[in-house]
Protein 1
Amino acid sequence: MQRTLLICRHAETYDPYPLQPDFERELTPNGHLQATRTGQWIRDKFSRVDTLLASPARRANDTARTIAKRLYFDEEKISYLPGLYNAREGDLLRCLAALPQHAKAVLLVAHNPGITRLARDLSGTHIGYLEPGKVVAVKLEFEVWSDIYTATGTLLDDNTKQLS
């Protein structure tokens, strides 16, 4: 069964101010614009997603909500998973492996370096380090999400060359 995984880095954030927790970093005005453009790009290329997973960190949360609006995806249905915050590739795979069978088009909004490594490994392609607000789409063939550990897919498309 064909699955599409859209792997997105959160949009641009302000540098942390003294004593600000990393978890609370906010999007810049340009970051909000990046997320809006990314949502539009996803809608133009893929129409919709049926599952949206995001790190609960403020920057990823805001990116996911902005993209969801462009996709007409109910914000209440976004799954904020603590395991996605600054996750390594193995942690990201564990979250994806737990997805329900009906999830066919999935958007994952998280952090580097884990998401870039995940995109490279799943696509079998050298992808440059994902810049803020950028997304790559990987087509995968497997029956159940737990098979993602052994899957290698095909890079379908990306918006990494678009201007921010």
Protein 2
Amino acid sequence: MQLISIRKHQTNIDFALQHFGDLEGVFDMAMLNGLSITETPAPGTVLKTIVNNENVAGYFITKGLDVSGTEPPIPSDVLPGGIGFMKIINPALPQSNDFIVS
């Protein structure tokens, strides 16, 4: 068992893939560290790990790869979302916002 810290922009899936070697590692990570599988620990949080698939985990180690996403270009709290913000424009009728969903 090793203690490894979460990196910036690293999700549970990223962490599990890199350090456990498979996606099932998300469940192992949660159980080992008393977390929910949907909880994303803050960067720098130290977690217990075990290797489930040595081939995959070893690949990331030997290649020196770090599995993590990137910062979104626009903060998610700035982006509007949901169906109330969606609009379909008919090029044939530029003044119309009507459409039929079937």
Protein 3
Amino acid sequence: MLLGAYAAEAQLSPAITQWLQNTSVTGTYYASGNSTPIANNILVNCQQVEYSATSVYVSTKGVPAYATGPFLDGNPSNATSQNAIFKFPLTPTQNTGNPTATGGGNIGVFINGVALFDYRDGVAWSTTANALCGGPGNPPCGGTTYWNRDAILAEKAGFDCSKGHPAMGNYHHHQNPSAFKLDQTVISTICNLYDADGLYAIDNTVHSPLIGYAYDGFPIYGAYGYANVNGTGGITRIKSSYQLSSITDRTLWPDGTNVPDGPALSAYALGYFREDYEYVAHTGMEDYLDVHNGRFCVTPEYPNGTYAYFATVDANWNSAYPYVVGPTYYGVYANRKVTSVTEPTTVYTGAVAVDEAQFNNLKVAVYPSPASDLVAVQVGGLVQEDLKVELFDLAGKLVCNTQIHAGQTIAYFDLQAVYDGIYFVKVSSSNFSTSQKFIVTKE
């Protein structure tokens, strides 16, 4: 069995070093119909990380570096400052008793300080009223709910381009935080007017980045990992072991449990409720996850191995149930949000170290080419430090410049005042740089 690496990592645990820290850059949001982002004056990412011998404390406003919104389902909220402190254990442990189910609200935190929710949206089926209950516009649910709505399907129209939305100002993701437009098959048109941005861009050639921590303290990775749990076998998409069941009516759960009847499939298609899914073990297939949507494995940050969750997607990169963590935790759960730090700590001031291999994994795409009015610079993978983005003409003269901040993936250049010709976009970190050529033509 692989050994959990947390104890050995001690104070240099990735649970300390991998958070994206920022004390100067503020965020933006979109209003419906306006593709120009509006300043919200809220600091993005995490503002402070401090640690003791047993815990790490992360202070954050809960707002990402990528622009949020709009939310086109009538959601009246925008992302607002959460002023939160989260306390995670440096040595998380397996729950050897009955698994704890994930619940409503925060079940984890992404490395940019943004909240992770599970599959649910607070709406369920009332088996007494034979109607939806809970959530805006519905009567409250009373007692046990046996058919609980899946937010990924039901609330798709209200997600922004980054696949997130707010609950009373608490901006969060239920799923892999990579932009809709970057999926292999695009299932939302929200990115047609607003940035195709998110925490990271999926890259099927490298191990996905560490993107967060669940409320049991174990790490969360993106969609791709090593085919074998010992770190060999190349890179593959890490797959959910859940699938839609073959039920023809909602009188039984897929495991045969007799429960009060839910709505007909003709009224709500299979997949509209969480209980429409069943778990199927894939014995001997190491790229499939367990019942918690995780596995023991080697990762780049944990070379000795750890239990880790993965943000699962299908072959088209569309989100796949149970999406990130769930429906139960592997480890010992606790509410990680605290009101204060009550023990002596050391403030971690080190930036995330990006080496040459990691920088080279940030695949830069410049499009369209030829371009006329606007050109986009999209970076694959996870940006862990601010990147300088510069536009040069063929003679090497700097035309204009901008930035891609840590926790973003995209930048734009307005070409209205740029002449026809060949240009270069240079993307630079503190130590490394790369350039891409493109053409401007106004014809």
Protein 4
Amino acid sequence: MDDKCNCTFTYTLAAWLLRFWLGTRGVITGLVKFYGDKKTLTAEALELKKEDPAGFAEMLSAPGSDAFYEVTKGFGFSAYKAMPADGIPMSVAGFKANPLMPSFMVEPYAWVLGPALVLTGLALIFGFCSRLTLFVSGLLYISLTYGFLILEKQLLPADCTLGVASLAVHMLLIVAALMLSDYNKLQLLDDKKICKLLCKNK
């Protein structure tokens, strides 16, 4: 009996480690996409805006309006960038130019990627429907793998191989976490009932 208890506890610890690692990976990877250049109005510009809102709005649309802003590094929605706009193969322009990627999907995907990583990461850390969250995380990594594969000709062979291999390791960790889901304790919302419903329908 004690041996069985020890074995179960070991599996629970393993499930926690995988859950917290994958969750942390998702949150940090997503948050990094919100870090960059932030444009804020200077003190003089704010004062001018108070005194003459209409005139200030007109000046902002005129050439040289960058003088009203100061650029700082920090986190924020204004700094969000999932991928560069142009200049490298793995950019918005690079994906749009690829015949294997529907161009209308590129920008929506870029906007969704960062928040999706953060939300799935937090859901894993706090244990919100971990099985379903792990599955969604797996789908995200599959989509990233697809991006690497369709740009194989434009990327250096070593970069493509390394990227796909890294994502494959993440997929294996997700599968391992799913296999240990029955031992995953301390969750805000368990999805065992959903799994039972799916099993009953078979």
